[in-house]
C-alpha cells in the first residue's frame, strides 16, 4: 500500500467559496450590491497558478481574489454549457465549444516531471467504491426516465471521492456519487446520478446546471488509515451517506478493477431548458476517440465496503440497508486529456407553442 503524506489535521484554513456581497445603501432609495469587482469580471481574467499555490497562506486580499476568480471561471464555463444545451442545431459540445483537437491547456495531463512533483506534495484523488446489484428491479426501473432504458445488467454504483489533482488548497473538494447504470437511445450504456452531496453551494449550482442532483452537506469527513478508509456526509444533523472500507480478500479482484472509477466520466444527465429538458451524455460515443490517457494509480486495495444510506431517501431501498459488498479503495493522479465532449441524446418539451 502506498503511504500517504503525513498531515496535521489541526492545521486548518477558512474558505469563502460562496460569493461575498458588498452592499452600499446610503439611504432607502439607493443601493448597489456587488458580487464581483469589475476588475475581475472579464471572463478572460484567469487565476494564476503561482498565485493559486499561495492560497490559504495568510494573504486575505489574494484569497478573496482567487475565490472570486474561481466563481467567475465556473460561471463562464456554465454559460457555455447552457448555451449549447439550448441550441437545437448543435448535437455535440467538444472541448467546451472549441472543437476537436483544441483542448484546454490548463486541463492537459501533467508532464512526468510535474507528475512526480505533484505526487511528492500529496496531490491526487482518492475514493472508496463499490458496485451492488439492486434488490428491487421495479424500483430501479422507476428511476429511469424515457428515452433511457434498463441496461442488460442493472447495477448501482456507490462512491465517495476526495479530489485534489493539483495539490492546491483552493482546488480540493469532496463529492459523493450514488449512480445507476442505464441504456442510452444510441445503444451505449452510461451511468445516471441519483444523489450527489458536495461541500459548497458553488458546486451545487454547477451540478444543477450540469444536470447532477447535488446538495450541500453539513460536513464531510474523509480519512485513510492502514488497510482502511472512511468517508461520511452529514446532512441536517445526521449521517446521510457514508462508506467504510476495510481491506481484505474479494471474490474477483479483476472484476472490480474493470470498473476503474465506476462511471469514469461516462454519465448521462438532464439539463433544464425553458419548458423542458435535454438529455446529454458525457463520455465516449460512436465515431469519437477522446485520446484520453489513463491515470497513474498511486494506491489500490480490494476489500469490503459498508454503505450507509439515510433510509428516508427514496433511492436507499435500491440496496440492502447497511450493505457490505466487495469494493475497493484507490488513489490516482493525472490521466485525462484528449477531447472532452458531450452529446445530446433527446429533448423533452421546450418547443415553441403552436399558433
Could you characterize what this model shows?
The protein has 355 residues and is of the alpha+beta class. It has a single domain, classed as Acetoacetate decarboxylase-like (Beta Barrel), CATH 2.40.400. Helix content is 18%, strand content 36%. It contains seven helices and 16 strands. The protein has helices at 38-41, 49-52, 60-85, 112-120, 137-142, 201-210, 253-257; strands at 22-27, 30-34, 92-94, 125-132, 156-163, 173-183, 189-198, 214-216, 219-225, 228-235, 238-247, 267-273, 276-282, 296-309, 323-333, 341-349. Helix 3 (60-85) packs parallel to helix 6. The radius of gyration is 21 Å and the shape is globular. The termini are far apart.
Amino acid at each position: 500500500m502506498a503511504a500517504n503524506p503525513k498531515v496535521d489535521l489541526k492545521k486548518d484554513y477558512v474558505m469563502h467559496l460562496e460569493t461575498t456581497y458588498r452592499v452600499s445603501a446610503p439611504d432607502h432609495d439607493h443601493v448597489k450590491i456587488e458580487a464581483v469587482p469589475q476588475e475581475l469580471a472579464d471572463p478572460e481574467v484567469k487565476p494564476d497558478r503561482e498565485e493559486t499555490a499561495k492560497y490559504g497562506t495568510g494573504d486575505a486580499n489574494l484569497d478573496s481574489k482567487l475565490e472570486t476568480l474561481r466563481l467567475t471561471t465556473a460561471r463562464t464555463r456554465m454559460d457555455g454549457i447552457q448555451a449549447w444545451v439550448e441550441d437545437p442545431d448543435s448535437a455535440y459540445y467538444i472541448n467546451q465549444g472549441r472543437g476537436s483537437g483544441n483542448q484546454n491547456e490548463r486541463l492537459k495531463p501533467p508532464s512526468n516531471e510535474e507528475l512526480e512533483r505533484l505526487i511528492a506534495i500529496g496531490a491526487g484523488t482518492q475514493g472508496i467504491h463499490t458496485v451492488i446489484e439492486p434488490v428491487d428491479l421495479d424500483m430501479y426501473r422507476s428511476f429511469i426516465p424515457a428515452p433511457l432504458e434498463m441496461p442488460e445488467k442493472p447495477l448501482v454504483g456507490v462512491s465517495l471521492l476526495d479530489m485534489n489533482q493539483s495539490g492546491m488548497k483552493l482546488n480540493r473538494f469532496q463529492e459523493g456519487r450514488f449512480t445507476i447504470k442505464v441504456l442510452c437511445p444510441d445503444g451505449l450504456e452510461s451511468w445516471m446520478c441519483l444523489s450527489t452531496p458536495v461541500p459548497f453551494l458553488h458546486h451545487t449550482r454547477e451540478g444543477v446546471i450540469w444536470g447532477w442532483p447535488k446538495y450541500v452537506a453539513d460536513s464531510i469527513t474523509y480519512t485513510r488509515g492502514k488497510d482502511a478508509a472512511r468517508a461520511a456526509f452529514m446532512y441536517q444533523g445526521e449521517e446521510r451517506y457514508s462508506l467504510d472500507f476495510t481491506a481484505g480478500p474479494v471474490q474477483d479482484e479483476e472484476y472490480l478493477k474493470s470498473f476503474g472509477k465506476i462511471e469514469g466520466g461516462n454519465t448521462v444527465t438532464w439539463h433544464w431548458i425553458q419548458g423542458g429538458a435535454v438529455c446529454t451524455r458525457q463520455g465516449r460515443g460512436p465515431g469519437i476517440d477522446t485520446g484520453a490517457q489513463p491515470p497513474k494509480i498511486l494506491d489500490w486495495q480490494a476489500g469490503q465496503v459498508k454503505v450507509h444510506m439515510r433510509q428516508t431517501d427514496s433511492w436507499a431501498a435500491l440496496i440492502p440497508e447497511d450493505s457490505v459488498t466487495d469494493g475497493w479503495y484507490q488513489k490516482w493522479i493525472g490521466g485525462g486529456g484528449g477531447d472532452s465532449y458531450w452529446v445530446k441524446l433527446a429533448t423533452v418539451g421546450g418547443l415553441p407553442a403552436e399558433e
